[in-house]
Amino acid sequence: MSVGMAAPRAPYACDPDRSRGRLVAEPPSRTRSPFRRDCDRVIHSTAFRRLKHKTQVFVFHEGDHYRTRLTHSLEVAQIARALARQLGVDEDLTETLALAHDLGHPPFGHAGERALDDCLKADGGFDHNAQALRVVTSLEHRYPEFGGLNLTWESLEGIVKHNGPLTERSGAPAGRYLQGGLPVGIADYNKTYDLELWSYASLEAQIAAFADDIAYDAHDIDDGLRAGLFAVDDLKEMPLTAEIIAEIDRHYPGLDEVRRGAELVRELISHFISAVFNEATRRLAVAQPQSAQDVRRHNAPLIAFPPEVAEQEAAIKAFLFRRMYRHQRVMIVMREAEQVVRNLFERYRQSPGDLPAEWIEGSVQETASARNRRIGNFIAGMTDRFALIEHQRLFDSTPDLR
């Protein structure tokens, strides 16, 4: 089958007609599948709209053409849908998870996350996946009969487990949570609605996770080129990108740098999508899963890069780490952004009356830890722009972040 063609529905796809349902039972939609309904709820959520002004790498006012969390999420969804279509799994569920994967990110990207994690260290820390779960299960206030979006079980497990199991079958933390334990939000919610944290997620969720990697590798290169942090020829230090650039130069001699970079990004995305498709096809042929539950209970992920492509992708991440994420220009802005978040947290902690009225209500009876978590939830929902406006309101001096 051609990589660009849609595959027939696979037996291992999540079937919307056999969804495990929602925590709060609802009548079915007359016009949409449960997974399409989930996707629409994410798109219409307040948290999704806020992604428009949340940092990917560059703070929103550094330029109109850099990625934000919103444009990044749309690009992840496009790549994820392409893979879902080729592998015959549910596109609506895949799109839901691609669009929802960054809902828990605070302002200023990973800098904001580091700052909030430090501020909440004594209260369980901050984890953006756990925050995304809070957003869709409680923090969104749009429906009269429940808090959150009341997404299906399949969407919730995908938000939490798209990077793999969180625990052993015994319940002991595993993987990245082995040392620090499960994030508070995930551990608490799982007591209410068991997401089977010990198993892998659906193929749709695994696809969304790899689409995220592909999107930010390729598009961070694009943004880094636009920002002048490196040039196209600097990417020749990696064999994969050197080969792609040489091919572009053969086909289009004398091509200007902007188009040369754009062509590189396109070819890189195509290369990674093809690699994931081929490796997934190979693994599925060996594993022969006959249901979505077989995918969850398999002893390894079924969506992956082949080993040689995983090395290529790791080399790109290492290049971006050195030349972009740790570039002095970016680091100066991110250090200042971290301080903005720390200042806001400490101000609200000492003067809770500075919070909006709806975030103060009920806080008098809370423990200090619960109040701190409430403050963290408020800050995590801020856009970059709103965080700076709040900082200007509460402090005499606010960094420019440029």
From TrEMBL:
Instruction: Say yes or no: keyword Iron present.
Output: no
Q: Name one GO molecular function term.
A: dGTPase activity
Which parts pass through the membrane?
none
The UniProt entry, under PROSITE patterns, shows: HD
Record's keyword terms, sorted: Hydrolase
Q: Does the keyword Transferase apply?
A: no
Gene Ontology biological process terms, A to Z: dGTP catabolic process
The segments labelled Disordered in the record are 1-35
Return the SUPFAM superfamilies for the record. HD-domain/PDEase-like
**Where does the HD domain lie?**
69-217
> Which InterPro entries does this chain map to?
dGTPase, dGTPase-like, dNTPase_2, HD/PDEase_dom, HD_domain, HDIG_dom, PHydrolase_assoc_dom
Pfam families, from UniProt?
Answer: HD, HD_assoc
Which HAMAP family does the UniProt record give? Answer: dGTPase_type2
Protein family according to the UniProt entry:
Belongs to the dGTPase family. Type 2 subfamily.
Q: What is this protein called?
A: Deoxyguanosinetriphosphate triphosphohydrolase-like protein
